[in-house]
Write a structure and sequence with these properties.
single chain, alpha+beta, 4-stranded antiparallel beta sheet, 29% helix, 24% strand, elongated
């Protein structure tokens, strides 16, 4: 939890935030850094054309994953059971 010291007599003052992480050019990069590192460690390849798209070939199985903000979509060319199996391996 973040604590903020408020000076006596200034409890009703308003603070202007000059910079924030959201909306800056680096915000998306910072938000995706850890998930991308994790997917790389699981042998997923990031698409050059779309940085939200990852794929992984494991034997005869091909897995596709889309990472968008806080949502993840996983699918497989071999159906739902294979995609569910992949999700179990990731958790």
């Amino acid at each position: 939890m973040c604590s903020l010291a408020i000076a006596a007599g200034k409890e009703n003052w308003i603070c202007k935030l000059n910079k924030a992480l959201y909306g800056t050019p680096i915000s998306g990069n910072r938000r995706h850094r850890k998930p991308v590192e994790t997917l790389n460690s699981l042998n997923y390849c990031r698409s050059v054309a779309d940085h939200c798209f990852f794929n992984r070939n494991k034997g005869k199985d091909t897995y596709m994953l889309i990472l968008y903000v806080h949502d993840v979509i996983v699918t497989s060319l071999h159906g739902r059971k294979q995609a569910e199996k992949q999700l179990e391996e990731m958790s």
